[in-house]
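User: structure tokens for this one?
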Amino acid sequence: MSKAWLTVWVLVTLMALPVLTSTAAPSDLPPYILNKGSGFAVYTNKHWRAEGIGAVKELEKRDPGTYGSKDRSFRIWTRTCKPGQKVTFTRNIELLGRPSSIRASVDMGLAMDYYDIFFNSRKVSHSSTSFDNRDLKQLHAGLNDIDLVVKLQKSPTACTNFQEPPRRGVWFDLDGSFSADLRVGKPQKPVEYKDAPEGANQVVIVAIVNLGSATIREGTFEISTGGPGWCVERKPDNTCVRYQFFMITLGPASTGDVTCVDDDVYHQTSKCTFKDLRPGHPYKVGVGIKFTPDSLGTPGWVEEYRTISWHGRIAPGGPSDPDSSNNDNSVRIVFCRYGATDTGCKPKPA
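Assistant:
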């Protein structure tokens, strides 16, 4: 069935709609980002630098555990070691947003006096791996500087600490979780009444919003309506060509990195995927529905309606969604034969 009837009408209607430019994040994830953005786990390795010294030396390989991070995991130190030495190890990491939780682990094979942890030049820890909300706020979407400052004891055995050479280094793990709050758009009115004496077209613009603090890398969005209605046009072999209700998603009315696939048999559902939904940058999906009266089967009709429902989900492996109550919504479109008001259809004239 041709969609030209709806496409032309939509192009005219959409001239007044706001256009939103996609600001999607890059597609490639750093190796320390877990799954599809559920969290991160950063380990010490050759990607760290010693301030004022340069490259670090990877010593003993360290089992990072079961987080699933692809980041290299090694004990590290500088090329030389001396008692009382103070070294600042630094690394620049890219995060999907402010973490919802974070923790750290430090394991020394040297005699350590103390250590400090800095997030973007602010000290957040002194010989402790506990963090509070103020510390979390020092991290943000994009590039972040992580510093680990280690001060050795002045004892003669500080650089050996009775360990084998491969273990004479520091292992550091910084890991955390991301949280996002996916919300779908709410209609201005739960019921819309529309004049449709000979049928009508209606566009619904639905927003997908991220109210959380981290980018949603992948998600799904599904739109559906309550059945095609009666057949209003048939082929000579009695096969139905056109039903009362026909729904499709509308590319010109949509913004952001969203891809939709319509049901091409009954045209009642559309399954969409979206990518890189950042906080504060909503995507929009346009939906068009066409109503054709069944003048032969129901000649006395006064009103017909369909409910358009939509729901969104964060893909498995993505950030947590602490509030799923705002993931679903709907609107009822009522088509009126004898005219519509804001509150209902007009009755058949006496």
